[in-house]
Amino acid sequence: MVSAHEYDEAVQRYIRDIEDDLRKVSMSIHDRPEVGWEEYHAHKVLTDFMDKQDGFKVTRHAYDLETAWSAVFTSSAAENAKQVPTIGFNSEMDALKGLGHACGHNLIAIAGCASAVATARALEEFSLPGRVILLGTPAEEGGGGKAIMLERDAYKGMDACLMLHPGGGQDGKHGAGVITSNCISGIKATFHGVSSHAGATPELAVNALDAAFVAYSAISALRQQLAPGTKVHGIITGSDEWSPNEPIVIPSKATMLYGLRTESSFTLADLIPRVLRCFEGAATATGCSLELEREHLYLELRQSGPLAKEFAAAAARCWHSDDGESYHVEMHAKTGASTDFGNVSYHVPALHPMFNLPEAGPKDQPHAASYAKTTALPSSHEATLRASTALALTALKVLTSKDLRDEMYKAWKEDLKAIDAEHAIERLHKVLPEKQGARGKSSDHDHEDGHFGCQH
Ligand SMILES: [Zn+2]
Ligand SMILES: [Zn+2]
């Protein structure tokens, strides 16, 4: 019987073996930031890296998505087994327009690689049966890459799915938090009017920008009546017709991109019709026609309690802060942000801790411009390796302990029942506008119905 200490020592060693290569991969992605669906460089360096790891079978451009990929490892001891315990990991890759890697997905990318490689090596060294699936998941910042991959069966057969995300700083200490996130629905509202000369013949125009203005105001007024924790935020984008130098043409088109957030999918279904009425009212008031489309739908994270305990225990065994204090995992943290990994957590028991970046200042949070600098620091790299070590040890426990798998499934089923997940999803699909066509080059996926997510 292998002791936890032997696994701890081995996993730390495997990650140290590849830490310099991981640093190069992380910085290469960091220095060439790419927005969602355009992560071509990240796709290349990550798949090249995984191709060099013993036993991993790499698929590039997976699931009909140009920048998605997978790397799958099956241990020698699992070759003739009927049922192979399987763990999933995720590597995000996309950056934010104009801000670079201000969400630290360069660190998430290598955390996925580090955890997957260390888990695979342990399976081989200790002759354990198991499978590791690492997914390269595009477009987390709004495109819903994981939601699409989920519909295309990328997460099929996993007993549990894990990933990491960097967070803020905690007094310079290493550590992590197990967060709940918000549920978000992206809505695109396009107003169509009639353009005309703003000075000579304004009476002939139907002003689409006015419609956007009225909708913006209506939503702003609605906010006072919204429950605490509800957020409605958006932008107005123009069309090519908008005069770049002078406002001489009354706009015939205006598009509003909105995010509607609540703490749960159940309450999101109540919010959506109230916001849609603001768009509809603005169209009526101005005489514009209105086109409504749903964009991404990210469900709130359902974190697995049993997996969180394993992660915290592994981190505490392996790591201490520089002052000797043990690695602290805050078990009930909260964020108003959202992730497409929430959809995965409705599908399979899941864990998504956010680890501290020791040198992040108080205002140095994901999506702040300063955060892109922090995600390149050596201390942030070290924080990623420590959290990845704990994540790989969590994975090993899932793969080697039927008791943990049973406990995890039981907790997950009870959790989904407690939030009435099935009914909540049904309600959401009733109130959401139609979606756009499926992303990807094959027509084989026309049957997709937006189950737990939608097409961008
Ligand atoms: Zn982000
Ligand atoms: Zn992020």
How would you sum up this structure, described in words?
The chain is α/β, with parallel strands linked by helices. It is elongated. The protein has 12 helices and 16 strands. The termini are far apart. Helix 7 (305-318) crosses helix 10. The chain has helices at 4-31, 40-51, 105-125, 145-151, 208-222, 265-286, 305-318, 341-347, 371-374, 378-400, 402-418, 421-431, and strands at residues 57-59, 69-74, 86-92, 131-137, 160-162, 165-166, 175-180, 183-192, 196-197, 231-237, 249-250, 253-262, 289-298, 328-334, 350-351, 353-355. The relative contact order is 0.17. Strands 1-2-4-3-5-15 form a 6-stranded mixed beta sheet, sandwiched between helices. Strand 3 (86-92), helix 3 (105-125) and strand 4 (131-137) form a beta-alpha-beta unit. The longest helix has 28 residues, at 4-31. The protein folds into 2 domains: 4-180 and 301-418, 3-Layer(aba) Sandwich (Aminopeptidase); 183-299, Alpha-Beta Plaits, CATH 3.30.70.360. Bound molecules: zinc ion (2 copies). The site of one zinc ion (ZN) has 5 residues, from loops.
Write a brief caption for the model.
Helices cover 40% and strands 19% of the residues.
Give keywords:
Aminopeptidase, binds zinc ion, Alpha-Beta Plaits, 16 strands, four-stranded mixed sheet, 456 residues, single chain, six-stranded mixed sheet, alpha/beta, 19% strand
Enumerate the distinct ligands.
zinc ion
What is the string of helix and strand elements? Answer: HHEEEHEHEEEEEHEEEHEHEHEEHHHH
Overall helicity: 25-40%
Low-confidence stretches: 441-456
**What name goes with the CATH superfamily of the largest domain?**
Zn peptidases
Q: Averaging pLDDT over every residue, what do you get?
A: 93
CATH class of the largest domain: Alpha Beta
Principal-axes geometry comes out as: elongated
Number of spatially distinct domains: 2
Structural class given helices, strands, pairing? alpha/beta
